[in-house]
Amino acid sequence: MNRELNVLWLQSGGCGGCSMSLLCADGRDFFGNLESAGIRLLWHPALAEENGAALQGLLADCVAGRIRLDVLCLEGAVMRGPANTGRFHLLAGSGEPMMAWIAKLAAAAQYVFAIGSCAAFGGLPAGPGSITDACGLQYEGEQPGGLLGAGWMSRGGLPVINVSGCPVHPNWVLETLYALALGELGAKALDALGRPRHYADQLVHHGCARNEYYEFKASAEKPSDLGCLMEHLGCKGTQAHADCNTRLWNGEGSCTRGGYACISCTEPGFENPGHPFQQTPKVAGIPVGLPTDMPKAWFVALAALSKSATPKRVRENAVADHLVVSPTQKKTGLR
After folding, report:
1. 165 and 122 in one domain?
2. Could you list the residue range(s) of the whole structural domain that residue 265 is in?
3. Cβ atoms of 138 and 150 closer than 8 Å
4. What is the DSSP string of 246-276?
5. Distances in whole angstroms, Cα of residue 272 to Cα of each of 49, 144, 229, 282
């Protein structure tokens, strides 16, 4: 795009964690980064001064086209309850349901971003037992639909751009905006769920610091252990589409590096796995959730072979909270 990109950011049903992630990123000049990319933030609930009548006036101007709205960013799920009235969540001072404002602004915007898994798929507000009838902008879990409908397209010719995650990595948001500002965000840049492929074409497993343990199927038995978290502790890193272990958070960490199993938070329905997050469901001792592109028979055969070849160092370190056996010092003969 040759002109400045006007971005409006709204929060619906959620915890605000995606904004916290974005604003706590390891960047020295958030506004400067946006400005240098030709992005103008019209309003954000944690950053803008306008509220009350001033905010309603801004939103009305966007809906009417008096202010050009290039990108609507929604954080948080759409609250449709009770009985599809949206009255569980009103825009303060307007008396109107937030979902009505979202629909009007989405119709006026050139592009629409769902920021986080709540806005994309419903997320935690749509979990079991919720009475909010929460949904995503264009999905209910993995089923197309949501507030805007399965076939909805923005004025720019794209479906909702689902920058999913719970919370999102700040650079997933910024790089998607940058790509749009440069005119490089087309349909081919999105995966089958509308997620930007620059991060969704990766797996959390890629770059995981525990991969040596995974290769030998040397598994952790409790959360503080160093071993692979897949076999016993519920890790879904081999199935989750994200680049968390190659694009570290603030250049330092990820869930698995911090000792927490990946719960596949970029995927629809992650909030309701049907079992405790830190438990791996199994059938006949074999994990149900295997790598997405590996036949089960191959995995079982390779796992048995790997376990039989596991070095003592890897086997003992896997069930310890610190390295107890260091690598052998041995000349390799390489020069």
Report:
1. yes
2. 202-322
3. yes
4. TS-BTTTB-TGGGT-----TTSTTTT--SS-
5. 37, 18, 19, 17
